[in-house]
Amino acid sequence: MGSPLYRYQLLERPPHFLDDLRFKQCGVDKVTGKGVVRFVDVNPTPVKPIKKSLLASKAGADDPKLVSDCGDLLEKMCALEPEKRIQVRACLDHPFIREKAGGGS
Predict the structure, then answer these.
(1) Which of 27, 36, 99, 105 has the fewest CB atoms below 10 angstroms from its CB?
(2) Could you tell me where the beta strands, DSSP code E, fall in 18-100?
(3) Backbone φ and ψ of 37, nearest 5°
(4) Distance CA 30, CA 81 (A)
């Protein structure tokens, strides 16, 4: 399948992340006006899990299981490492999607 960098090259799009998960930030220096490229180290493990944040901020009327399932799906979709990211078929089979598509509350 190739590295993420290789896949971006096939799409003729510049990658935002390098193979070592450093974020490539392109911009313009405010003083010189010249283009600059910075590489930012990104921790692939979030500081606070999405599911925990969602559960902490849910309203009283929200279904805790639905909020938890939503957070679980979001965490899997937002994984930085492509190998750990959830695939489309698995997303469609996820409890959050199945519940919503099945007409659940």
Answers:
(1) 105
(2) 22-28, 35-41
(3) -125, 125
(4) 32
Distance CA 75, CA 94 (A): 12
d(CA 51, CA 75): 7
Query: What is the predicted pLDDT for the residue at 69?
Result: 93
Contact criterion met (CB below 8 Å) for 41 and 22: yes
Sign of CA dihedral 68, 85, 27, 14: negative
3-class secondary-structure state, position 98: helix
What are the per-10-residue average pLDDT scores of the chain (105 residues)? 55 69 85 90 76 86 90 90 89 91 61
Number of H helices, E strands in the chain: 5, 2
CB contact at 8 A, 24 and 39: yes
In the three-class reduction of DSSP (H, G, I as helix; E, B as strand; rest coil), residue 36 is classed as strand
